[in-house]
Amino acid sequence: MVKLPEFLKTDCYVGGKWVAASSGRRLDVTDPATGDVLASVPRMGAAETDAAIATAQAAFPDWSGRTAADRALVLQKWAALVRAHAEDLARLMTLEQGKPMAESLGEIEYAASFLSWFAEEGRRLYGDIIPPHRNDARILVTRNPLGVVGGITPWNFPVAMVTRKAAPALAAGNCMVLKPAEATPLSALAVAALGEMAGLPAGVFNVVTGAREDAPTIGKALVDSPLVRKIGFTGSTAVGKQLMRDCAGDLTKISLELGGNAAFIVFDDADIEAALDGIQICKFRNSGQTCIAANRILVQESIHDKFVATLSARAGQIQVGHGLEKATQMGPLIDERGMEKVERLVADAVGKGAKVHVGGKRHEVGGAYFQPTVMTDVSTDMDLAHEELFGPVAAISTFRDEQDAISMANDTPYGLAGYFYSRDVGRIFRVADALEVGIVGVNTGLISTEVAPFGGVKESGIGREGSKYGIDDWTELKYICLAGL
Ligand code: ADP
Questions:
Q1: Residue-level pLDDT at 3
Q2: Could you give the CA distance from residue 235 to residue 294 in angstroms, rounded to a whole number?
Q3: pLDDT tens digits along 458-480
Q4: Which protein residue's CA is at the shortest distance from atom 23 of ligand 1?
Q5: Could you say which EC number(s) this protein's record lists (predicted)?
Q6: 464: CA distance to ligand 1 center in Å?
Q7: Spatial separation of the C-alpha atoms in residues 456 and 317, rounded to whole Å
Q8: Domains of the chain
Q9: Verdict on whether the full-model pTM lies above 0.95
Q10: Within 13 A of 262's CA, how many CA atoms are on the CB side?
Q11: Does any ligand 1 atom lie closer than 6 A to the CB of residue 179?
């Protein structure tokens, strides 16, 4: 087994204690680059999830009864500890997730930023005083925590997706039971360990791990519990829809941050170098495994050939390797399942007439590495035009004019992010308005920040995370009518 940093934990965190599964069953966590086993974590079930919910419920009166400033102190300390242990956390993330160290370090800072931000936003959960409907009354509106909430997070951002949910939930006074992805539980447990060091009271934040087969059981225990008032989920659209159906049973609230099918449009008036830099970020970062990755690259006809030639040259130079090696710019895919999906989508596209300019196959270094790939002549009859690729494959189509680009971009049930490059100020406003998405990147491929609302429209989700809006979903409004004054 690989030597892990000492403060990192391999048991679940429930009620302020580090616990194993009552069955004794464990799940091996592996390095996707090598297949090496890093550690093992407990495989929890329904009973353990219920126990975690109960401990969260027990912690709720004290935590929600504290002042926002008291909660903020703990969250700020948590943020400081995450930053202080950034190297160790990043190393762990690279080991279990595969992304290059520079990206892991970037994610750790991004993750810490949610703790800092929501520590402050929790102090600004202002209510309202509304002009009353009768003279002897006053109308007050307050924002209150929900109680116990559940978080279910994916493997592509193993720390940031945890804090993006936990920070606003806890800042508002809720207590959380988190189920991290089976591929990356160690990062979540490490974050919990730092939360414990920061002074989180027992039961306020709990982490329950499991294998992929355990996820429906743990998820159902969370959704079905009458104590759990809300689920915050980031993951696939299929699972998100299932959870939402399950939540209907007792009307558990749910926020969903689901799959995307982002269009990345390059108009002929664009700064081409800037657009190429943007693709580097939102296509090859995290090996293309982000829900805001450029799934469809639409390039205006007149600049297509030059654009493809330069992008292919750039893609061919991307240094692929283990994320811990200094020179590495792109790591492996998460697992064989991810690899098979990328291979299937590329084969389907090639079979229907797409041309591969560079890459297109498993990388010669072996394992779960896929070659940085550029493909053209992509059309809407290909599966990759409709399915999230989650791989380093730049799939390019052409368009004639602005209207054409907008129609193509919106031709999908998804609506998370969209990008376009143009220097025409009129076009910038027209296209930004017309794109049916929750997030628009204009002349940039880098849109994630704790200060802005992240979330999708259409089948990409419900709710927003981050920003001043991101705490609202973790609260409930209460209207108090004071009469007889
Ligand atoms: P991906 O295919 O990218 O792994 P998933 O939606 O399957 O995306 O996984 C996202 C998160 O949802 C993970 O933590 C996973 O364990 C969890 N999950 C998967 N299936 C279920 C389910 N039926 N109920 C609750 N959580 C689930």
A1: 66
A2: 17
A3: 999 999 999 999 999 999 999 99
A4: 216
A5: 1.2.1.79
A6: 19
A7: 33
A8: 12-258+460-478 (3.40.605.10), 263-442 (3.40.309.10)
A9: yes
A10: 30
A11: yes
